[in-house]
Structures are given as structure tokens and as C-alpha cells.
Amino acid sequence: MKRVIPKLLTWYQNSHRELPWRDTRNPYFIWVSEIILQQTRVDQGLNYYYRFVEKFPTISNLADATEQEVLIIWQGLGYYARARNMQFAAKQIVNEFNGEFPSHIKDILTLKGIGEYTAAAIASFAFQQPFPAIDGNVKRVTARFFGINAPINTRAFFQNAQNLLEEAIPNDCPDLFNQAMIELGALICLPTKPKCDICPLAELCFALHHNEIDSLPVVISKTKAKQVFLHFFSLEVLDSIVLHKRPSSGIWGGLYEFPSIESDSIDLPDYSSFLSDKFGIPKSSAPLKIKEVKHLLTHQNIHATLWEIKLNPAHFIINSSFYLVKKNELFNFPIHKLMLKFVT
Ligand code: SF4
User: Fold this and answer.
1) Are residue 288 and residue 204 in the same domain, yes or no?
2) CATH, residue 244
């Protein structure tokens, strides 16, 4: 690979996108950008990045924030455990590293939520250390360039790719090499129809010269997504509405939503026992269907329906895991992406 690296670096210098986290050596900003980019595309991630570093400009600002403040900034990105892990890691840095982001990759890997890819990205971008940063894009480029046949999400693949890239990565510019490989995967070596005619690696690419572009990388098919039917209730009590805070672990952990029940179909299930158990309501008028939305998660296709019920305050008892909030204060609470589809 070493023979084509000069071409790769020249291509990167002439063709890369200008992004704020590429103009900094600040490991905190690089870390924030990497975690956001695990959740979303670059164009959407930019806004989140600016909002995050404006609200929490330093590690100690993030460590001192409330969970609610962090989740509101993260709102809409999904996988909220990542945001909570970042805050936990910020506290680790304050308590265990005197507030200085650790520079050694072994120390970086001790921070909660930071895996091999992110640690290598921070070590190379911020501290110029020669660790290959192997994200999904780099895996695809590496599988094709070297002709690696192991399935892309296996440890065998990762180990093989890491060994080959460790031999190739230049000691004098590991950051540029990693950025170039990531950018090449994003812009040129696309999953389908890669632009081999303008690729700086074309001269030595195994897949191109062995006609294996369509068969590499090897991907093991994913398990079929489960169909889930959720019914959310907009329970209105005069000018207020009921919110439920989800448990801190699991899907949408710590976020707020309308009270809901799961059923096995899109039809309205029996909701009367739910209302009487949770809120002491003996009976109510029939719910009015407000909206149906589909929401796709990695392993679940959620079919969600929002139903509205206006409640008589005289018959309403708030349960401890629910909150009665003014309708115009709804957006002071961090809510998940599916909820956003209901209320925006
Ligand atoms: S030559 Fe084609 S397949 Fe090979 S790395 Fe470049 S874009 Fe990917």
C-alpha cells in the first residue's frame, strides 16, 4: 500500500470537505464530533456539533451539566446511552486525569463509551499517534483494497485489517492518512458503484483488478427486524399533559414520552385497565386518533399511534412515575425522536 499513499494524501488534500473538527487538535472537540458522527450523517451532525460545543465548551462544562441538559442537546440523534456515556467519561477525565484529556491510547480506552475506532481517531487526530482508525468506511476500503474475505463485522476481519493498516500508516502524518481513508470511503469507495476511475488507490486495488468489487466486503445478512405496535396517549388535563420518564437503561433511556402501551396490532387495544391502574380513572371518553407514524430502529420496526384523551381533573390521580406538565413547557423536557414525530 505504501506506494499509493502519496497519491491518497494528495487526493485528500485537494478533495476533502472542510469540517470544523478537522481544523482542531483539541481532543475534546474531536471526541464530540466522532461520537455525533456515529449517530448521523455529516450534514446533520454539523448542527449538533456546533450546539454541543457551544453549550459545553470544555470537558468540565460537560462534567458539571445535568443529565437533562445533555439529553436536550442530543435530542433527535438517538441512542441516548452515547450522550450519557460522554458525560460519564467527562467526569472520569476530571476525576482521574485532572481534567486533561488523556493522550495515551490505553488511557483513552478506559473512558466510558470509547471503543477502538474512536480511541484511534482521537490518538491520531489530536496526538499524532500512528493508530489506524477503522470505521465502517475504512473497513470497506480496506476489504476491497487488500482483498480481505472475512465477513466485515467479525473480529478476524478487524484484526487482519488492523495489521495491514498498521504496516501502512505513515509515522509522520497518521492523522492525514486516517482522515484520507475515512474520506475516501465516504466520497469515492461507495458501497455501490464506487468511483474507481478517480480513486487514488486504483493502481493496486485487489477488488478492482480481480473483478470483486460487488463481492467485497463480505457482509453477513442481518436478522429480520421485529414488528412492534405501540399506542401512545396524549392525556390532557386542562392546559397540562402527562409525560412519562423512561428508565435510564435501555432504549430511549432517561427520555420523556407520552404514556404508552404495546399491543400485537395497529388496532386500539383495551386501554381502560391501563388508565385505571396508572391514573385511577374509572372510564373515559373514547380516544381520538391523532397520528400514525412508523419509526425504524436497528432491530425493530415500530408502528406507533397517538391517541388523545381529555381527562376530567376531578377523576385524575398522578402516579409517581408520571409528570403533569404545562403543554407549553413540553420542549423543556428531552424527548425521543419518535415523540418528536408526534409533537412537531
Ligand atoms: S479502486 Fe475502487 S474498489 Fe478499490 S479502493 Fe478505490 S474506489 Fe474502492
Assistant:
1) no
2) 3.90.79.10
